[in-house]
Design a protein that fits this description.
The complex is a heterotrimer of chains A (491), B (193) and C (239). With 491 residues, chain A is an alpha/beta fold. In chain A, the strands form 4 sheets. In chain A, strands 13, 16, 17, 18, 19, 20 and 21 form a 7-stranded mixed beta sheet that branches. In chain A, strands 6-7-8-3-9-10 form a 6-stranded mixed beta sheet, with helices on both faces. In chain A, helix 13 packs parallel to helix 15. Chain A is globular. Helices cover 75% and strands 0% of the residues of chain B.
Amino acid sequence: MINLQNVTFTYENADTASGLSDVSLCIPDGQAILLCGESGCGKTTLTRLINGLIPHYYAGKLSGEVLVQGEAVSNLALHQLAQTVGSVFQNPRSQFFNVDTTSELAFACENMGLPPAEIRERIQNTAQAIHLHALLDRDIFALSGGQKQKIACGSVSTLEPLIYVLDEPSSNLDHASIRDLRAMIAHWKAQGRTVVIAEHRLHYLYGIVDRVCYLQDGRLTHDMAADDFFSLSAEARQRMGLRTLSIEALLEQGVPSPTLPGLAPYRLDRFDFAYPHCPKALNIPLLHLPAESIVAITGLNGAGKTTFARCLCGLEKRCAGVICRDGTCQRCRDRNRSCFMVMQDINHQLFTESVLDEVLLSMDQEDVPAAEQILDSLDLLMVKDAHPMSLSGGQKQRVAIATAIASNRTLIVLDEPTSGLDYRHMQQVASLLQSLAKKGRTLLVITHDPELIVSCCTHVMPMEGGRATDPYPLDKAGLARMLSFFTAIGT
Amino acid sequence: MKKGIQAKDLINIGLFTAIYFVVFFATGMLGYIPIMMLALPFLCPFVAGIPFMLFLTRVHTFGMVSIMGTILALLMVLTGHPWQLLPIGILMAVLGDLVLRAGNYKDWRSIRLGYIVFSEWLAGMMVPLFFMRDSYFAQIRAGYGDAYADALLSVTPPWVFYLTIVLIVFGALAGAYLGKATLKKHFKRAGIA
Amino acid sequence: MGFAAFSSNHQSLYRLDPRTKILLTVLVGIVMMGGSIHGPSAIPRALLALAPFGLLLAERKYRQGLLYLFVLLLSVGVESYLVTRTQGALNLILVIVSSLFTRFVPGLMMGYYLVSTTRISELIAALEKMHMPRQIVIPFAVMMRFFPTVIEENNAVREAMRMRGLHLSGGNVSAYLEYMLIPMMMCTVKIGEELSAAALTRGLGRPGARTSLCDIKLRGLDALLITISLLAFALWIVL
């Protein structure tokens, strides 16, 4: 049992995560509970109170009482809590301590000083229960995000805690991995464990959580049964700033039938690529991309989406592909100047000490008024003197786009621009993309987010096994086709 | 902040040692350009000043810098570098740690001096060369005669070793300023330091 | 020797105890550093200099092993033959290069052998068995874990620089270095902070003994290699 009594918390250094005010919540054993709400509502903070990272890791002012299995969290050391509460976090890349999977699965048990024979048995049991055998004895750095997250779940599972706390575990996963995640949660629930999940992506939790708590500005405002929650109307959940409750519902939402500009498309020839000692990762003899449109690139991990984007942006020099439009053709090297990729981890592509400098750096001739105009159009003018790394995720994304505009790139690829975003921020990205397309840019969006596709994309280009066909328009038939891809393997 | 070295501190030590080492090593790669080789004792501690100064913003208690030097030296020896690096590396790290502690890890003058002392671990690389000289020249003398040995001695003077030490001092001093400037320019404003 | 070696999952074919490898690495380093290529002390030195060669062959690293043998023989040959037959600047270069090579390369090659055939978990288990305090073992493990991360982050940043058209041209070396180092460090530090939180919730830092899944044991082959190398070492001291 988890019991929060009148808990108020404020972080010492007010970073992006916001605190809680006067939250009382009782979670009985064996319950699966979903914590949701807009970014900054305090759901992550709530998970940290349960796994003890507050007050033992994140400093701040805490009042009220948090009891886990009848003991006050503040009186227990983190390693004592570790036996009761297992935690899975958002970023699969930063959760593992070891470099190989089996050591990682053993890690928590080793810390607890369990005998090696028992650790081995537990690893076998866990591998059996959540289908990890194929992942044993592997280099973690070579795994996909979904596989890493599976190992993270497994490494928590070996300690057999009574309570599992998951903080936005699906943020970086494709929908096949989300299905695995759902199965994992179901397994824990079947074992009678308590599961607490803070999430933005909600649809995969339908039928698996018992109860839903909605937080707003650090307050617990709605506490409802799962059935009531999942039957909320589309308007109600959008008003609450929540993501879609089911993929099927997006079909009803429909798409504004796109007005296609009818321009000459880009013609892509011979986009082939193979990594050393590997089968072909990309095999596209001929492809047409509609200009000044927003094309969603869908497909499972390993379908070649990122490889395609890298070849397109001229990052893979061994790719012989050529892009032609209006009689001008560009080889790999030329595309460095006309294509731009907004990476999934945006922090890699911000270099300077201020937002304005970042834009100026991308201009051939530094032109401050022009740079400020670009920043203004992206709603960034008021932070022009701030350090880019001090901004929020969405702002950083817009800074990267501003640099692309400043350097006159016509083709912009975005890699998972909405991972971990709530409804409002997702909508912001969607309208930004639309305004860019209106200004004559062609946008390609690699995404696992059907809601984003419905909100802004004009075309969909499915990829599988390194192959792709011409994008189909996202009209009524296209919508059904796109959604069927997500529902076929999804929940 | 709690006293003593916590688990979180141990992770920070490992993390920053990794960054420090990679930066150091990558700068050392410049040594393949022959003329740069002589400049390495200056360049390596100069560039590595950035991660080290960032590391110091995480240091609050005695021992953290000592551990950093210890695992650094341990890694060097395990990768086949001269064993003398281990005692010298540990010694320099502990001495540097003492200097830094005198300023409570915040006073700029002791940070500057502490980083110089710490950086002298690199001189451990030269120690075997320096002490090898005697046995090496004894062998040359026996094999090829006095004239040859004396000629060779005159072109490989012992002051190269002292020059290295001095170069490290200046490199570390400049590196400390570089690190300080970078903290101010980037890490503080980004909310990381 | 690339950093890739550190993250290697390669399982050593002969499963030597990492402690044996560590001992050999240190002994080879010490012995090669002193003594001569002439006279009686050359015998134990030659024996130990060949250790990395044999070990690399046993791991089917033929290319590296043969390359090493070639470099070793070449520098010994130069040191013993060419040095007396050349003069002036060429002689100077030959003396310095060949004597540095015969002294440093065997040790470095042992180091390469050690890191490329030992899993990090084995190395950590070995350090624990050698009764290293946890204040050393934990940071050492974290450091090894972060090498691939630093490389990964660095590659991503370099790529982003290429896409932005930030090249090393003209006199902007310091700006180039800044663009390269700062985002890499920021990203790595961020990962480190999240890793700390994750590791602490998995019980890292619990007082009391840790156990290890890795069973490292001294086997017959270890005993044999240790005996031979210690004998060679003793011989080298006596001679």
